[in-house]
Fold:
Amino acid sequence: MTNSTSVPESRQLSSPHTPSSPTSEPLVENRWGAILLVALATFIVVAAEMMPVGLLTPIGAALARSEGTIGLSLTITGLVAAATAPFVPVLNSRIDRRTTLIVLMLLVAVANSMTAVSPNFAVMAAARILLGVSMGGVWALAASVAPKLMKPRSVGMGTTIIFSGIAVASVLGVPAGAYIGAAVGWNAAFWVLAAAATMISLAMIVVLPKMPAGAGVPLSSLAAAFRNPGVRVGLAITAFIVTAHFAAYTYVRPALESFAGLNASLIGTMLLIYGILGIIGNFMAGPTAAKTPKTVVTTLSLGIAATLALFPYLATTTIAAALLMALWGLFYGGISVSTQAWIAQAAPSHREAVAALWVSVFNASIALGSFTGGQIYDGAGPNFVFWFTAGTATLAILLAISPTAGSRQVTPGTPQH
Structure:
């Protein structure tokens, strides 16, 4: 979105995650330990969501199901998280968020333990439903705790650190799971997640202070935010690009096996390359996206579309596959921060509401992408998956460059000052 005078400078964001006003009492000191702990919580829940991506083949062999069917584990988690996230701030308005986060992390531990011992896909599906509920809750609450843990001038940095857990998990969780799975079996990857979630919940009992939820987010705020044209365009772009990404990325392991004949160890290396470049892309995109999200979103969407389109033709050797995975990670790594910046600048007076909507759309798109990609993969093969996803990413580009996408919109009824 371009800079305009429709929103005074005082209403613009210093970062895409900065809350509009702290809701806690002034603090004597910043609670960096608590901030890092919440960041670890977001890392674990997103890593748990993404973990099956690098383990589709061994899980499918163990449960006697196809890669496409096992990919539905992401669809299930994403759909449940999408349904849960918008209502967590509403339903949790009178519950201390310290208590809620501790309980949610224990649920994450249970969900991953169930996944590790799943004898069939039905049990795994039940575990992924439980994970979706807990993940949607953790992710939805994460954006709101920084004002309760940091001094006002440090809230932006605290929130950025919390959300870095999501960014890092999105790009490193999959290769970590692939390496663990190759070394000691796919079940071990989920046992590691269960143990980590348990340790985090215990640490939260000691480290986190009481965090009264405050006024919460009324349903009317969610509706008002969604009526904002700028928010709707940003959410639509998010839906197209995330759907495209996960339709391809969920099945990247069998695709690399098919295109380049790579073994499990080399695929883990490819995913690590993707992850490292994804983190770089996240921090490269962040500062610019806070000022000109339209430019960043358009550039990243174009890069993703081009990479996906070229993948079936060029990813036929180890070196070429590594280069394409690096580009893919670099471009997609900035999508989260840039699309959040888009919708946050579109409706600065409803920041928690648009964040909840964004979490919902993001996770619904993960579900749609993994489901669609699985259907195409099982029915037509990996080539068609990448052609379809390149076309879907192109729709995001067309939306981003449309004439109406360049002006910042303010929710009707928002006071101007």
Residues 1-25, 407-417 have pLDDT under 50 and may be disordered. The chain has one domain: 9-406. Residues 155-184 form the longest helix (30 residues).
